Structure formats: C-alpha cells, structure tokens
Amino acid sequence: MKQLQYLLLAAVAAVTLSGCSVLEKMVYKIDIPQGNFIEQNQVEKLRIEMTKEQVEFILGRPVVRDSFADNTWYYVYQFKSGRTNELTNKQLIVNFDQGKVASITGDYELSADFNTPLETTGE
Fold it and tell me: Taking every annotated instance into account, which residue ranges of this chain make up the domain Outer membrane protein assembly factor BamE (predicted)?
C-alpha cells in the first residue's frame, strides 16, 4: 500500500512539474527595447561635414556622449524579444572633427552620397 502511495505521489509530481513548461508558453512576456532606435533611412540622410546640430536633428540625442572625448557620439540599441529571448544589438558611432562629422562606423550602411557634403549657401 505504501509503495502505491509513493508511486502515485511520484506520478502527480511528474505531471505537475511537466505542466510548468506548458504554462510558460502561455504566459505573455513583453519585448524590451532600449536605447536609440535608428532606421536605415535616417542613416542615409547623414553626410560628411554635417554639424552636431544637424546630426542630432536627424538621429536624436545619442545614448552616450563621452565626457572625455566630446567628439564621439554613440547611438546604441538593444532589443530583447519576450517570446524567444532573442537579443539584437545595433550601434552607430559618429566621430566629429572641429564640430563636423568626420566619420561614421557601426552596423548601418552609409549612403553612396555620404562623402558628398551638403551644399552650403555662401553669403
């Protein structure tokens, strides 16, 4: 009789614990975006020799401005999917020289016109 009780208790425990994995798929988990979400069409608007104000108008404020090197702005984005726990990281680093864009590196493609400065109106 005791063996039957232990066997029944083990069966109930096994069914209960296996049910946790089924319930986990039914629980809603939120997506977690952090940082600057930047689209490719925004990056394509950037040109060499743009001012900091122009870059900030197109991309918004950077997540990180280095206190010791004000000539480098970091746009960082991280997205964690609630359903799959997949993690996506993207970054864009803008380097300035004398207050104007000198180079851009990161996970985005620059437009073919990037090396062509915007026309300035002479006075």
Answer: 35-104
